[in-house]
Automatic annotation (TrEMBL), chain B:
Keyword Membrane: no
Record GO biological process: cellular respiration; small molecule metabolic process
Gene Ontology MF term list: oxidoreductase activity, acting on the aldehyde or oxo group of donors, iron-sulfur protein as acceptor; thiamine pyrophosphate binding
Protein name: Thiamine pyrophosphate enzyme TPP-binding domain-containing protein
Residue ranges of domain Thiamine pyrophosphate enzyme TPP-binding in the record: 71-218
Species whose genome carries this gene: Brevifollis gellanilyticus
Domain of life: Bacteria
Keyword field contains Repressor: no
PANTHER family: 2-OXOGLUTARATE OXIDOREDUCTASE SUBUNIT KORB, 2-OXOGLUTARATE OXIDOREDUCTASE SUBUNIT KORB-RELATED
Taxonomic classification: Bacteria, Pseudomonadati, Verrucomicrobiota, Verrucomicrobiia, Verrucomicrobiales
Pfam families: TPP_enzyme_C
Keywords: Oxidoreductase
Amino acid sequence: MSTAPALSPSSVKALRNAVIRLAGNSQDGIQSIGGILARLAGRTQQDVMTYMTIPSTISGGPSIFQVHLGSGEVLHPGDDSDVLVAFYQHSYDSHISAVADGGICFYDSGEVTELKHERGIHHIGVPFTSATVEAVGGSARDRGKNIFVLGMLCAVFRLDKDKVAGILARQFGKKDESVLRNAMLAFDAGFAYPVGDITTFHFEEGEHKDEHRISSDGNTVMAMGLIAAGVRYGSAYPITPWSSIMETLRTELPRYGGIYVQAEDELAAVSMTIGAAFAGHLAVTGSAGPGLSLKMEALSYASMAEIPLIVINVQRGGPSTGMPTSIEQSDLMQAIYGSHGDCPRIVLAPQDVEDCFYIALEAGRLAREYSCPVIILSDQALSSRIEAFTEPDLTKHWIEPTLDLSDRGADFKPYPLDAMTRHAPPGTKINGKYPHVTGLEHDEWGHPSGNAKMHQKMTDKRRNKLVDLSKKLPLPEIYGDQEGDLLLISWGSNYGQMKESVNRLRAEGHKVGAAHLRHIHPMPAGLDRLWAGFKKVAVVELNDVGVYGYGQLAMMIRAAYADPKIQSICKTDGLTFRIREIVTGSEKIMRGDA
Amino acid sequence: MSSPTLDTSSATPATALVTPPAEEKLTKKILTADHPTWCPGCGDFAVLAAFYKVLEKLQYPHEKIVCVAGIGCSSRFPYFMNTHGIHFIHGRALPLATGVSLSRPDVHVFVFGGDGDGFSIGGNHLNHAARKNIKLTYVIMDNYVYGLTKKQTSPTSPIGFKSKTDPTGSIDRPINPMKQLLASGATFIARTHAAQVKHMVDTFERAIKHDGFSVVECLSECVMFYEGSFDDSTPRKGGTYEIIDEAQHDVKDDVAAFQLADLPSPGKFGVFYEVQRPTKNALEQKWIDETQAKLGDTPQRELLRKRFETMR
């Protein structure tokens, strides 16, 4: 958490980081200005992480966008905000408690009338609406008040005005000329608005001076990673929060000679994708939890038929339709065990927005190497939040798609017991019998087989692929203390918050470390070496503790290592972890009263 | 022209769109694989024999033939063909075949299945593969009963049919395959009969040569669970087999096709409907070509690097 900027008469104060929360309704365009602030940070060597809540209603409803800008490493979107921008009374009422002591609240003085003067919070009333109408004039009504606020924040934080103008021009320049003109009018009016005698702030120079920094959201970065991994085909069905990946692939893949198909349903989507994989391509399908459930029969097939495949699940709140625009990590067991039968498949989880790129590349590599489905468990927070990171080096991270149609000899077997399956896609000449790809238990040639011994051998083969992988996976590094009171283990988008919690706990004098798992199934072999030197282990995840008191990853690790010192820090309130929630949970476990 | 996924540098002649004549002559002997697991007397044997005959006639390159099926007795078809084959899950053969067809314009995709697979569990996919006009040929072996699971009512079982799930006789109105396919937007729709080998061969050949989604319903008797189902269209059992006279019936006229489809059992056989409409395969390729024309010779890796530039 950043410390609240103390106000003083001095004119400019240097900052290392600040959390700005924009609270309004979803149609006010606060995501849009939040996104611009985040992109700006990426361009100016600041680090950035954003946090967004969106109502799942079609239009309207309260919505926030929180931007954490920092000159150092930004690990989390921020518990409390230093600055609140409240567009309405309801925004003010809901979010004033999230402002740090001594923070600043800008509010629309035409909308917010009842203020709570407490905890040294500085209230600054600005007529966002009427000042915007005045600046833009005429028929625009209050459209553009988000841009007015952007201008105001630019002035307060002394952000690079020219760069903001550049981003605005890119965003609005493609539309009618008057749109950009009105946006610039609103921006200039906000920038010039006299907010009174307050401190302005200046970010210290960031640590990433010489690198190409880019800022983007996890879904976009995942789509870019898939393209770099060599994916050119696939199919999906729209569902929140997955859809933007399929939209990006649909739009981008024709540039690379590929096709992304919008299927009639989730079953068709996974089937078309398996079709493209059978045809010899690296292909991807994806969905959120409900859609993954619908794909389960076909995914069991892909394990049995040994089809390489990437499947992305952008998790959201469940069960059932649940909370489509909220975060949860409750699909872990579904990802590993959701299908009928013993059907081994690989499950990976990216740790932050940047990792969405690299995890997609790894998924492609593993799918090909082990000829099996690879599920990537992303989540709602990663899907939409914007982070700044170093631009991936495509000279190192780029797989050229290939289609292996080389002739196969008479001894070709699609399902050899003593080697990895390497299918011969259609178009391959076979100098013997042609192979059959099948979901029935089969012999090495793909003939259906009800032979009991053969079923055991093939089950062994499919399982041993994952056993082999688990032995090759490196143990995650421990952040913080290498031995001591407590080891935190987490997965997915909790990465930054867990590290920040370790910083906080160590500052309090505890000996705490943290390990983050990107490989959920199989886990790296010998995972218990991680916690050998710790008194307790707490698995931090966003799912329910269930009947037995342990979250889903905690259950997996307990099942694998049967170590009673493994405990859980879980919650399911639809929001990402706050640092203080992990800190409090850790303290309880260390005290022994959890 | 290479398959769209291929980096041009790695394209091989094996993926050329215009396929050269097969090196070895495809014969029934070469095309035969496992011995069919069907019951003696099953109509599907004749369908398999007819399909061998068509392939002998067409002489496509051996490695370019792909047989796809879902689940059911007739869906065992790919195992009996010595060609590339995939036996998928129940009802999803069409979307799987769609994935093959769209991503591999150089291969010939054939889908086989029954009435349960096609009209019941896979019904939604039939509608969408048809409206998208996916380039493939789909043969539905319709026996009016679930055979693999031993005599339950199927979506084409006539009212009154006694099965294990309708012991007093089926009460649900059966679907009319021809009308269903007409409404779905399929561009080639025909009906044939397993006891009419010559008509099957002719119909399959025409379906395969159609540039688009071609579907053939083939009545194929299940001698175990619905014996005598097609006697009224089997001349040697006293039935009538009347082939549509295309001098009288305009195959481009969907209203006339609907009227033909409404005739009482056994109805007529042959081509009900045949029109040309751009395939999804062609339309997607057009989009790719137009998109890539604007990009010039930019290497793919450079395209992605430029995309990152916009995110700086």
